[in-house]
Amino acid sequence: MWFKKRRNHKYYSMLDKVLNGNMDIDFTEFRMLYTETPDYNPYDNEKFAQMTNAYQCKDYTKAIEIANRILKDNYPNIQAHRIGELAHYRINDMIKYSYHGKLAHKLLESINKSGDGRTTESAFKVISTAEEYAYMECWPMKVKKQHLIQANNKYFDKLEVFFSELAGVNDLYFDISVPYRWLNERIKD
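^ thats the sequence. predicted structure below, dont judge the formating
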């Protein structure tokens, strides 16, 4: 395997299964367990711009290389799997295209099952703002405003989103407590 186990942690045994093609795991648990590992850093988005740029410049091999570097430390990264999926399609590697596509779908489905996003009580639970944006990319919406709010000892991104003329502007809530607390712990240190 191209990753190194750092600790005896359930996340790594689940990761082994996924790397061996077993998609029969609880992806919500997988995402949440990842936040307990030393690799977790919800604000490490440095390589994302490079990966996206390589893909947009049609340098698919480089996009895949950067996606793999991201996935080395952040396997639940939806955006890296999506770029991996699209870039593998472009180079006609249908096996890896399918693999990354299934993973991205399972990870997005995990977010979707966490709530309906209509209130703070039913907010979509994310482990990074990158997950929030990956989720929103799946829907035809435009963000009009974004607010950080606190309720019931949790932190939320409240987004005012425009879906269509018919639907108008609606509020969408994402529970960002996990990354928010991670950041606050680093600031206190």
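Residues 124-188 form one domain.
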